[in-house]
Amino acid sequence: MKPRIFITRILDEQVVKPLQERFDVRMWESTDVKVPREVLLEEVAEADALWCVTADSIDSEVFAAAPKLKIVANMAVGYNNIDLEAAKERGVIVTNTPGVLTETTADLAFGLLLATARRMMEAENDVRTGNWTSWAPMGYTGMDVGGATLGIVGMGRIGEAVARRAKGFNMRVLYHNRSRKMDAEVEHGFEYVELDTLLKEVDFVLILTPYTPETVGLIGERELGLMKKTAVLINVARGGIVDEVALYNALQAGDIWAAGLDVFETEPVPLDHPLLTLPNVTVLPHIGSASVKARLGMMTLNAQAITAVLEGREPENRVV
Ligand code: NAP
To answer: Is residue 281 a contact partner of residue 263, using CB atoms and an 8 Å limit?
Structure first.
């Protein structure tokens, strides 16, 4: 019997076809509707490999229901949707997709920063809804990006790619990590600071840490209170890193100027979420890595990892 792979979304044929020739591939029937929990639990019962996306919660219940499972390949660089302890206990390999989405996500992060600073979505909406009445001396005025100071919390692969873009905008770049990146400091002039200093000094705070127990609520009421009243917060990492209630309060009270969010605590963000009522919030539906090239690259890395494990080889991009 061929090893079985369960894929939780319809993925690109050119990537899946070579797997279908060698393995028994089963796939959930939708590209954009999450696989129902009961289907996931039923499918993993016979699966040797699980290929999932960031919206799927691969918790201990899933691992317990999957006695044959050898690998979980996650179509994302973040892997907070997977219970790594449960994977380790059961000897299941977990892989992710770093690198191939770095520049793509950096483009989006910088684009969201520009769109938020210059109120582009709000302005576009007025054009489309007939609310553009006349050129106004102070209409739609925002914050300058060129020459401003950017603070990156989580200066990893994507953070560095954004920082390089910021240099082209003549920005000063401060960053905070748990460890310093001396090479980047020497080569590009990025400056390492403690988190509180970064929050106090910069015009734009960009969150790019992974979502871990340590980063849950990393930016809360106290941290938002340290930021300038004219500052902009951009989150392209994961929703729970920024406390959404504290963020709403800070934006509403004018403690910070605006926020740009590609990620939310609950996704899709509920339509009655208070943040969606604020004009100074620019929102996107978690599209950081959404270029054709990056998404195909992510699928290719997943397919390679699954093939390696099912053929008894060590996969690349192993998380556990
Ligand atoms: P990465 O290379 O691992 O970078 C993460 C950085 O965060 C590292 O430099 C790390 O440095 C720092 N960090 C980790 N824990 C920290 C903490 N507690 N406090 C401060 N800094 C901390 O990862 P990446 O490829 O750049 O991706 C970053 C994240 O972006 C991913 O984990 C993912 O969740 C998110 N992402 C989102 C999208 C999207 O579609 N919106 C797309 C891709 C990625 P130290 O270890 O020195 O602290």
So the answer is: no
Pairing label, strands 149-153, 172-176: parallel
Task: Please state whether 202 falls in left (phi above 0), alpha (psi between -120 and 50) or beta.
Answer: beta
SS3 assignment, position 116: helix
Judge contact between 243 and 217, C-beta under 8 A. yes
Boundaries of CATH 3.40.50.720 in the chain? Answer: 4-98+292-310, 102-283
Query: Average pLDDT in the 2-9 region?
Result: 98
In 141-238, at which residue ranges do the beta strands (DSSP E only) sit? 149-153, 172-176, 191-192, 204-207, 232-235
Is it true that domain 4-98+292-310 has CATH number 3.40.50.720?
A: yes
Whole-number pLDDT of residue 43: 98
Whose Cα sits closest to atom 3 in ligand 1?
156
Average pLDDT over residues 19-31: 97
Residue range 223-248, pLDDT digits in tens: 999 999 999 999 999 999 999 999 99
- Kindly name the residue from 85, 267, 311, 316 that is annotated as catalytic: 267
Pairing between β-strand 49-52 and β-strand 4-7 as defined by DSSP bridges: parallel
- List residues near ligand 1 (CB under 6 A): 77-78, 98, 101, 105, 153-159, 176-179, 208-211, 214-215, 236-238, 262-263, 286, 288-289
Per-residue burial over 17-40, b if 16 or more Cβ lie within 10 Å, else e, is eebeeebebebbeeeeeebeeeeb
CA distances, 118 to each of 112, 114, 135, 174, 257 (Å): 10, 6, 16, 22, 12
Ligand 1 probe mutation, 77, 100, 179, 190, most atoms within 8 A of CB:
77
Q: Is 16 helix (H, G, I), strand (E, B) or coil?
A: helix
Domain 102-283 has CATH 3.40.1280.10: no
Nearest alpha carbon to residue 293 among 14, 8, 5, 9: 14
Mean pLDDT of the residues in the chain: 98
